[in-house]
Amino acid sequence: MKTSDFYYDLPQELIAQDPLEDRSSSRLLHLSMKDGSVEHRHFTDILDYLKEGDCLVVNDTRVIPARLYGHKEETGALIEILLLKRKENDIWECLVKPGKKARPGAKLVFGDGILKGEIIDVVEEGNRLIQFQYEGIFEEILDQLGEMPLPPYITHKLEDKNRYQTVYAKNDGSAAAPTAGLHFTQELLQKVQEKGVKIAHVTLHVGLGTFRPVKVDDVENHHMHSEFYVVEEDQAKLINDTKKQGGRVISVGTTSCRTLESATDEDGVLHPGSGWTEIFIYPGYQFKMIDGLITNFHLPESTLMMLVSALAGKDRIMAAYEEAVKERYRFFSFGDAMFIDPE
């Protein structure tokens, strides 16, 4: 299976640069897994497709303002860092630009010195380990100094940080938003529950590997980045009970999907716990837990294109994307949504 099998042509102007004023007013492409038919609706019409007894599974991770601009203490040279993973004792794995001059021992200053850092090591893929020093609470300093780490294809400045958070975001740790959830408002979630649909929460802290292109020709040679996930005991019970009672598990986003598939055993039982997952889902994968998926439109040749193709079938996905381009849907993080429906 070739990476190029997952390529499609996308006009640049269809990449959404700004969030819509009303989260839930985006469009929804409905793709039936039964017959491959496509319907064009609005996101609020998701209510027409959900059934009493279903369980929506959302990722409640919260994006941290992980992009920091500062300078090297010795030379004053400007430097940009992106926080990727918290290690321990205020040590973070970071992406640093420009990287060549960011050698171990270099001291960094941010925000007039309210945050300082020292590069202590170079790790895989050229990332740096930085030990930070500060007075007070790190998260509050980040809120003050940091910017949202929008993906590279978004060039507009984000006016409101909250628009790159889901309305149910609560656990700090992501370098990118679980974007399928951006379409939900509290009002829409209330209507979902009133219909008799349960809502379960899992956490997966999205890493920047989400945007990393697949650089190998053969899909099976691609190595996934690892991401930290948590499944609480009561949420695992809620999801397992849904299955036992004949309900459908609908994942909101590929991150919730990867969490569920990582923590579910071969017998289809979801286990509570936490850990790191490198699960790579591509055609041929047998899904153990999810029945359907609400998701955004993904980059050509990306691992996420491979995941949705594994669920709905590559030919159906490619045909649906061709239709979405023709109908001028908005693509990627701030774009429109697709519901891959088991019905």
Automatic annotation (TrEMBL):
A GO molecular function held by the record: S-adenosylmethionine:tRNA ribosyltransferase-isomerase activity
Catalysis performed (reactions): 7-aminomethyl-7-carbaguanosine(34) in tRNA + S-adenosyl-L-methionine = epoxyqueuosine(34) in tRNA + adenine + L-methionine + 2 H(+)
Position of the signal peptide: none
InterPro entries per record: QueA (IPR003699), QueA_dom1 (IPR042118), QueA_dom2 (IPR042119), QueA_sf (IPR036100)
EC numbers for this chain: 2.4.99.17
Keywords linked to the UniProt accession: Cytoplasm, Glycosyltransferase, Queuosine biosynthesis, S-adenosyl-L-methionine, Transferase
Pathway(s) served: tRNA modification; tRNA-queuosine biosynthesis
Annotated compartments: Cytoplasm
NCBIfam families (alphabetical): PRK00147.1 (NF001140), queA (TIGR00113)
Function in brief: Transfers and isomerizes the ribose moiety from AdoMet to the 7-aminomethyl group of 7-deazaguanine (preQ1-tRNA) to give epoxyqueuosine (oQ-tRNA).
Similarity field: Belongs to the QueA family.
Oligomer and partners: Monomer.
Name of this chain's protein: S-adenosylmethionine:tRNA ribosyltransferase-isomerase
Taxonomic lineage from the root: Bacteria, Bacillati, Bacillota, Clostridia, Lachnospirales
